[in-house]
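anyone seen this seq b4? input:
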Amino acid sequence: MDQGSAAAQPPETTKGRAGTGLRGGPVNAPGAAAVGRPHSCGGGRSLAMQLLLAVVSGGYAVGAALGWGSQDLAEIMGDFGLSAAALLAAVSCYAYARTIDSRERPAWLLFAFSSLMGACGNAVWGWYEVVLGEPVPKPSLADFAFLCFAPPAIVGLLVLAKRPVTRAGWVCLALDSWLIGGSLLTLSWSLALANAARTAQEGVAGSVPRAAFSLAYPLLDIALVSMVLVLHFRRSEVNRSAVNTAIAALALTVLSDALFTSPLLGAGYQSGQLLDAGWFAGSLLLAYAPWGARRLPSGPAGRHPDRQAGRPITGSLPALTPYLAAAVCTLGILYNVVDGRKVDRVVVFTGCTVVLALVIRQGIMLLDNIALTQELAQKENHFRSLVQGSSDVIMIADPAGTLRYVSPAAAGVYGREAEELVGTELASLIHPHDLGRVVHEVRRFLAAPPAEEPTTRIECRFKSGGGEWLNVESTVNRHQGGLILNSRDVTERVRLQAQLQHSAEHDPLTDLPNRALFTRRVRRALTGRRAGDRGAAVLFIDLDGFKAVNDTIGHQAGDELLVEAARRLQDSVRAGDTAARLGGDEFAALIAGDAGRDRGAREHQVREIADRLRATLSQPYRVGGTEVRVAASIGVAFAEPGITPTDLMRNADLAMYRAKAGGKDRVELYAPQMQADAVRRAEAAGRLRTALRGGEFALLHQPVVSLETGEVSAVAAQARWRSGQGILFTPAEFLRVAEQGEGVPSAEAAAAHQPEGAFGTGRGRPAEIARWLLEQAVREAADRHAAGHGVPVCVRMGADRLLDRAGPPGSLEALLRRHGLPPGALVVELAECDPRVPFDELERRLAALRRLGVLVALDGFGSGYAGIGALRRLPVDILKLDPALVAGVVESSRLRKITAGLLRIANDLGMQSAAEGVDLPEQVLALRSMGCTHGQGLAFSGPLDEYRLRRALVRGTFPVPGGAVEPALAGGASGGAMAVRRGSHNETPVPPT
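predicted toks r here
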């Protein structure tokens, strides 16, 4: 379909459609760019759209070149075909505008409106020419639609242009627009528009509106082309691909308009000719631009400033625009002069305004350049001051690696003058061991895209002026094919990091590797071994008796002993082995394997090393002028194929605990049975925890009977564990399970000698059982007192339990007050005292309890080595003989003498005496003859539940073998309740012998 201006035809016969605005329009898309990441539809879909666009446009061009086969079809395709293409562009722009939310959205709406006006104009033109078969009247609605196309498109282009930030920038934008538009107007007026204006006026004399219509379309074309060129040089960094596509559409449309307005083609133009293919392709490009353009993400990451830097000619085109415009304007004037025609007033006026605009623009640019020069000088001075005053060293190396600039800070950092370093090869200053790594990193950095990796960081050793190597950290940037290095001395930081790393991996007291470093070395030894090599071994070492050193001569002495033990351990292992301190008095050693030996030889070698360590660590220590002895228990575990570091160290730990349970001061090799035993103990401990929470514990009481009268003087509380099968386990049985479940294998031997009902503080479960026993015994005793059975209850407690600071202070006193137990109703049976227990604190604690009416019994007297010391220092009311003495008092004359002597001591000190484990009538008679006042055992009664106990208390007495007799020793308390004379045992008078 034809387009154009009045320059080719009279207004009556010309389709007056705005060429540039009609057949195409600008396009833009947020996030688009000329290069970069493909559209979200994918690169394949974009290529398919481009191929489809080429095929459709090419098909239209072929059809137009062949005349479409008939004049009617040519008119349909030239009118309604162009209308359909413009309508497609309008719908595409509108749909895209609804999907975005940015400042470009109004531009796309304007483009949609412009294309819609073009579609309406073509449709009206087709209605007259195809449907009605008559010429289009002038003016008509088609002319109005065509004239409404260009203004919205021009405004849309201005929206998409990069907005100036200053008033001078806005003035330059307006001047640039006029320079381009005025130059094109001058040239167009000289070539065709002046003739078109005269022709329009001569065709219809004095018809100013017709002349205006004839000139409006080309003038709008010139304005639109001016905006296109301005946008091309001032377009935003984003959406560049869509903008370029729009510029291509505009260029194609303007070219078609220019050909149409030429006298050669415009005179014989008819709808459907080849010229319509240009307008058709422009509309399709407009429809394609927002959806098929390749896009980059917005922001700095999507920009490629280095592209402009690589094309200096393209970058200088905006600066040449004013001169090119003046040249075009000059050509328009010269054309009139050379042709011999009179220079038109429009050309003269336009040329003068173009020259004036050029002068104004150059003046603005001159002022701007002066301001920029001053600003640049200020910034240059500023940055020169920063560089020269910076503590960091700034160096510039050319592509060959030679230093071309070094900042003055080099003298203070490297101890070398900057002038001395200039011209030096950078590689000669880097430590040879670091050079390969640095070269590799630099090559990798230079090969990486600058947009993805603008900088990198390199740390290496740099040679100083004094010859030593400094640790230097450098930030590296690209610079004209070379490098800019911003370097700083980090030697102190590296040293501090090394110290911190050493502190994190070594024990602060002994400086041996700690558990974390030891575990890593074990892991390295396991992963680095050859397949089947089981030579590596781990030794776990525990110092037996170390706690006594801390408790007797102080923690400072204990630390000195640990340091000496660590030194001995370090000196005793081989060069390739590792000695470590795991914590407290626990050490470890990693013995490297020897693949050249068989298993037996390797085990023998490791056993020899372990025995040597044990002997060395067991030698006397001289600490603070005092000779101290400790022993060493060592567990050994060998590495097996596929074993993990955790399992290997666990095996050594199990072997070490087995060595401690087996008597200490020995070496034990790990065996798989140890793990099975540990699992079994853990399961038993789990059952015990469940029993404690589920109320499976029962409290029994065994009567304490007067050996003279048979009266029940007190009851001894004893805990029992009722298993799922109904079996009651004694304290010695379930306490052993509890302590082993808590990871204390040595409790097995101790529990074998533990009297029934005795509980120390222990750890974990034993302490909970002891707490439960005390609370339950006090509660039931209070209930019996309320029922009229006022016999005291005896509860065994360890000394460390009484001094336990982990529990709430005054917990025993609070328990007595809560249940209202009267004075004298509770007897605390103090288990044998460890000499490491602070007797001063224990004496104060027992004295406070006695003031509340609590009686104190010394339990297990006659066994161990601490009984006499406790009897001498502690306020004791009752002395209880150990069951081991009672068991042999009949058969052994030696034990009879010992027992008689202990009872004489108790009697002389005014104490009550009680024997535990009295199971035979002969024992009752023997003990009574020696002066023992009370007995507890199967000779009278076993442990009773609450119901049977109350029945026994109602009865009140048990039969005494041999009847009531006079005691062999006078001065003891008479039978009956366990009454005790008050006062200190030091004040008790001793009767004559």
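The chain has 35 helices and 21 strands. The radius of gyration is 54 Å. kinda curious what u guys think
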